[in-house]
Amino acid sequence: MTEPNDNRSNANRWTPDLLIQGFKELVTALLGVMVVLYTLLLAGTALSYAGDATKMSNAKDILLLVLGLAGVVIGYYFGRVPADARATQAGEQADQANAQAAEVSARAGAAADQVDEMMGRAGRGAVLEGAAGRGAEGQAKDDTDDLRRLRDTLRALSRS
């Protein structure tokens, strides 16, 4: 007896899009094999006409047309495999890039939070130092402005 999770995973594997794609692949493969086999059959027939110039000329003309179709079929399949591999690789690279972007965004958000915390501490320190002397107040304000600009930059980075 199968578990319900197994049924769901099997159902997810064969979505209607995958079924249609599989059907297309099957039909394309059957047509390709038929064209190549027919070409080989015609080539064998053309070889049997080697002594008769009229039949050989007619077979050659037909074979020229069919060889073009066979070349297209073979070219399609040999060109498709590397293209599919490149598409898969590109998809994996895109996934990695998205993960890295999310990580950078999270780190920028965390850094912005740390800057907020530092600004809060700097503000409290400025109040205490302001009571002691006026020179420290100007420096604390500059530091707070620098932290505010850094925080805004990090927030923008985390949103992008």
Molecular structure report:
- This protein has one domain (4-159).
- It has four helices and no strands.
- Helix 2 (16-48) packs antiparallel against helix 3 (53-132) and helix 3 (53-132) packs antiparallel against helix 4 (134-159).
- The relative contact order is 0.05.
- The two termini are 49 Å apart.
- The mean pLDDT is 78.
- The protein has 160 residues and is mainly alpha-helical.
Q: What are the main properties of this structure?
A:
mainly alpha, 160 residues
* Secondary structure: number of strands: 0
Q: Describe the biggest sheet?
A: none
Structural class: mainly alpha
Low-confidence stretches: none
Rg, alpha carbons: 36 Å
Give me the secondary-structure topology.
Layout: H1 4-13, H2 16-48, H3 53-132, H4 134-159
Please provide a brief summary of the model.
Helices cover 93% and strands 0% of the residues. Helix 2 packs antiparallel against helix 3 and helix 3 runs antiparallel to helix 4. The two termini are 49 Å apart.
